[in-house]
Amino acid sequence: MALKLYGSVPNANVFKALIAAEYVGESIESVPVELGTQNKTPEFLKLNPAGKVPVLVTPQGPIFESNAIAKYVSKLRPAVELYPAKLQDQALVDQWVDFSQNEIRGYVQEWVSMRAGRMPYDKTREGAVKGKAMEGLKTLNNYLASRTYLVGNKVTVADIIVACNLLGGIQNVLTSGFLKPFPHVTRYFWTQVNQPEFKKVIGEVTQAAKEMPVSEKPAAAPKAEKKKEEPKPKKEAAPAPAADEDDEPKPAPKPKNPLDLLPPSPMVMDDWKRLYSNTKVKDFREVAIKGFWASYDPAGYSLWFCEYKYTEENTASFMTMNKVSGFLQRMDFVRKHAFAKMAILEEKAGGPFHISGVWLFRGTEIPKQVLDESYDMELYDWAKVDVNDSEQKERVNDLLEEPDTIDGKTVVEVKCFK
Ligand SMILES: N[C@@H](CCC(=O)N[C@@H](CS)C(=O)NCC(=O)O)C(=O)O
């Protein structure tokens, strides 16, 4: 008999169990619940006397509280170790679950609720909860500086719960600007939500471009408040209806991309990309690399080496590749004006894995919009290529050509951004 999970999606608390089920390969039947009505019926209150979702109905009886449910689902297939086997690791799972719930999510939820009009808006209180959330994020950020996962070297239910606990905040108030001091939290969050098991359940996540505006509607009376569901992750990505009604200035028409306004260059990015893609491997040096340097225009373009700063955290090659793929996906907005090769390199068998890359950008500096919008940039050291230095030029050639070794390290994989 399939387990039944009561609670409509999108809802981060419901997602926790559904994602855990994806990892352990358990099938769960989702039962939508209309909040405000169905969750207050005598039948529902028998499942959860608190009248809240989610509730999981198991053959032995109902369970409520989203974290308890996600842990239960994780333990259904002990061999997967989504809930780890060792006592110490189990305690660490609980530690991060409780920490994210109490020190981050609770505060962020209050912040969102005040802005959404589910609680009276109080600027002083908002400042206090933001400060508290920042303290929690700082602790998490420091811990994640040298780690991909919260516990051990693979995903556990702690990662599912913590990522889901960040989700509503990311969609409403935790803009990339606010999270700038916490690059490891940001990297961690996007790495998790881009895993297939997450994506299947929650789809694409959109980060709030600006802090959710304060709703003009007065906070609902407690009774009506009960009827509202917690911020709905997918819909929250779009402005809430209240936001449309308020006095927030309407966004100005999109300004022209400053890179389109640069003086024309004889080098055409698309021509280079075509040459790169269409040259046969055997002719690569002779045709593509020679063609590249023949057309390279240092007045209209610049080349940059990048090195991932936290090599020691790259203990698995597939995770390192995911990290690079995520970075390149997030650079989509600058695709027209950029080209890159990113190599995953292994100094000794089994890692840790280095990430070394070369980027070609339109303009003589790294574009400001890239520095402003891509948090990944801070995870790398950047150095402008001196094109008059033959060694540096040769390193560019290596990254373009993908030989078996680069910088004396074995090439595991090279990803191209074009
Ligand atoms: N701590 C609970 C929170 C549950 C909760 O607040 N659920 C909300 C939806 S996310 C709900 O059912 N609200 C309806 C109500 O309070 O009437 C958990 O993690 O499961």
TrEMBL record:
CDD domains registered for this protein in UniProt: GST_C_EF1Bgamma_like, GST_N_EF1Bgamma
Domain GST C-terminal per the UniProt entry, residue ranges: 86-212
InterPro entries to which the protein is assigned, alphabetical: EF-1-gamma_plant, EF1B_G_C, EF1B_G_C_sf, Glutathione-S-Trfase_C-like, Glutathione-S-Trfase_C_sf, Glutathione_S-Trfase, Glutathione_S-Trfase_N, GST_C
Ranges where the record places region Disordered: 209-264
Amino acid composition bias (Pro residues), ranges on this chain: 252-264
GO molecular function, one term: glutathione transferase activity
PROSITE patterns attached to this UniProt entry: EF1G_C (PS50040), GST_CTER (PS50405), GST_NTER (PS50404)
Keywords linked to the UniProt accession: Elongation factor, Protein biosynthesis
Limits of the EF-1-gamma C-terminal domain: 255-418
Compositionally biased spans, kind Basic and acidic residues: 223-237
Statement: the UniProt record of this protein carries the keyword Membrane: no
Domain GST N-terminal, first and last residues per copy: 1-81
Matches recorded under Pfam families: EF1G, GST_C, GST_N
Subunit: EF-1 is composed of four subunits: alpha, beta, delta, and gamma.
Function: Probably plays a role in anchoring the complex to other cellular components.
Protein name, as recorded: Eukaryotic translation elongation factor 1 gamma
Lineage, broadest ranks: Eukaryota, Viridiplantae, Streptophyta, Klebsormidiophyceae, Klebsormidiales
